[in-house]
Amino acid sequence: MTARAAGSRGSGADAPGDDPWAPPPEDEAVAVPDADVEQVARTILLDQLTGRARSRQELATKLASRDVPEEVAHRLLDRFEEVGLVDDAAFARSWVEGRRSAKGLARRALAQELRRKGVDDEVAREALAEVEPDDETETARVLVRKKLRSMSGLEAPVATRRLVGMLARKGYAPGTAYSVVREELAARGDDVDELDDAGEAD
């Protein structure tokens, strides 16, 4: 065998991987992009979870908006659940406590918000069960008292409509709202009998 022939065979010109312009093997072509996407997705999740808890559905929606493949998102969210970084039950409890404290929302409004966040109805019910009816009534009373400070010039029927409407928007049942408003107006010295008369006239 000549040196040229030996050199030609020894150079391995036909050996796989020696040609810098040849495409990588199929497993490498898939593995590297997937690894990159997964790292990007993990960073997105950690950024989203910085500051406050989020529901799994919120995080899935965020990943989808960043074009993370569904299978990658599902796999990562499962891992985050396994280590406790994603926990819809804990999220629901935190959401209920925070929204009641900040906005005075009743259970009905809170249930709607949790549903929009993608929290399972049963998980939401467990979180809402921690809110005692008496606590909810007291929260409504605090809201009415605060609002009444800016309604000193309004007659009782007008004030009632506005206050009951405010409580309704926050998820309070009509009976609870009207009862609380009537009691607080009476405590302020308003003639609440005219409210009953107006109701009978309607």
TrEMBL record:
GO CC annotations on file: cytoplasm
Keyword hit for ATP-binding: no
A UniProt-annotated Pfam family: RecX_HTH3
Location of this chain's protein in the cell: Cytoplasm
Cytoplasm listed as a keyword: yes
InterPro entries: RecX_HTH_1st, RecX_HTH_2nd, RecX_HTH_3rd, Regulatory_RecX, WH-like_DNA-bd_sf
GO BP, one annotated term: regulation of DNA repair
Residue ranges of the region described as Disordered: 1-34
Assigned keywords, A-Z: Cytoplasm
Domain RecX third three-helical: 134-180
Domain of life: Bacteria
Record domain RecX first three-helical: where: 41-79
Low complexity composition-biased segments: 1-20
Domain RecX second three-helical: 87-128
Main function: Modulates RecA activity.
Similarity-based family: Belongs to the RecX family.
Name of the protein: Regulatory protein RecX
Organism: Nocardioides zeae
Upper classification of the organism: Bacteria, Bacillati, Actinomycetota, Actinomycetes, Propionibacteriales
